[in-house]
Amino acid sequence: xxxxxxxxxxxxxxxxxxxxxxxxxxxxxxxxxxxxxxxxxxxxxxxxxxxxxxxxxxxxxxxxxxxxxxxxxxxxxxxxxxxxxxxxxxxxxxxxxxxxxxxxxxxxxxxxxxxxxxxxxxxxxxxxxxxxxxxxxxxxxxxxxxxxxxxxxxxxxxxxxxxxxxxxxxxxxxxxxxxxxxxxxxxxxxxxxxxxxxxxxxxxxxxxxxxxxxxxxxxxxxxxxxxxxxxxxxxxxxxxxxxxxxxxxxx
Length: 251
Hints:
Layout: H1 4-7, H2 27-35, H3 50-54, E1 78-81, H4 90-95, E2 112-113, E3 116-117, H5 118-140, E4 145-149, H6 168-192, E5 195-197, H7 200-203, H8 233-248
Parallel strand pairs: 1-4, 4-5
Antiparallel strand pairs: 2-3
Helix pairs in contact: 2-8, 5-6
């Protein structure tokens, strides 16, 4: 279950339904193959918010898809979830902060209104929904192992302008917000008695500033098949493999 960080949009090959921009080589698919899952449902969908997992049929360009929770049944043994980024509009805001020159001011200061960081506030506001999601999964599949999979190290602290068109201030800010989101998801997992798998250590040095052959995340202008600021095939494979090793070792 999850959003585009799990679905790996534009990574070959495309899975059905095409409106979800989901790859047959996203991390859930890699994980399923690595652990030899007897059956497997990948219901990740790009653009998903928590309500699309729990209660809403998510609209896509090829038609609505059912709530992802519908795929969870009483005999489900493992559920992985990556969600939260779209709830707080982090990808949309980051994409709008592209800068062609450092003469333009960073966008991060504008995200603090009357002393309140709007993204931090959104994380606080949405945390209960993530807890409710975990509860809903546990209710449907009481015996399932549930793992919240976090978001990665997308950019190094000062960025790498001009190789990637992001102001150093914004690079530090947005990774800090990813870290904050991961920390809250880890708290939700601990509070609800499920697991949190942190992919940030795995992805250090493989951010958008890395050389093309070392990247797990593509930059604003991808050099490998992937959506901008999203995992490429190597990144999805690395996360799926590491998660399989973690699960196989007992966690």
